[in-house]
Amino acid sequence: MNIEEVYEKANALLKGHFLLASGNHSNQYLQSAKVLEYPKEASKLTDALAIMIKEAGVEAHTVCAPALGGVLAGYELARSLGLRSIFVEKNEGKMELRRGFEITQGEKVIICEDIITTGGSALKAFQEIEALGGKVVAFAALANRGFCHREGSEVKTKAECKLPNNIPFFALADFDFEIYAPEMCPLCKAGLGEAIKPGSKS
Ligand code: ZN
Fold first, then answer.
1. Which of 146, 152, 157, 168 makes the best surface tag, with the fewest CB within 10 Å?
2. What are the sequence ranges of the domains in the chain?
3. Low-confidence residues of the chain, pLDDT below 70?
């Protein structure tokens, strides 16, 4: 499966002039929710991710996703792996397990995101699960933005990556886009207009 093609077909891989959450500019942007718009297609992606995780010998009881972004990917991955699916949600700077979800002592958990950028939300989910007595055995995401090293990739971990480096991270592909500081941005210099912020609000 050519993951980049799947993203392009789903209009999840945008090309243009974008303002990132970091304040930098880029000529590409991943609108991850779009790749999960059609469940049949989404399950093909998580089936592929499940094979990678199984082939690595990772065993787990549960998939836990940080809400909101990770929930659909986590649910589909849990279906692909035949596991339980739960999610944690933002509260006062933390990711909390709520809604009656529980973790048993030693329960093995995969933290799943739609996309891992620096892994900040995944790290908070990890901290919550481990504080409740669970054991995080892997991180997973459909897409890796190229800040963290995923299993089987040449892309090395960069300083921005927040994932613990002793736990494996599985993703289908790296989307290691070019990023420009605004004052250095060639798209601004080429007069392509103001960088737009697609994010979750468009
Ligand atoms: Zn620019």
1. 152
2. 3-189
3. 199-202
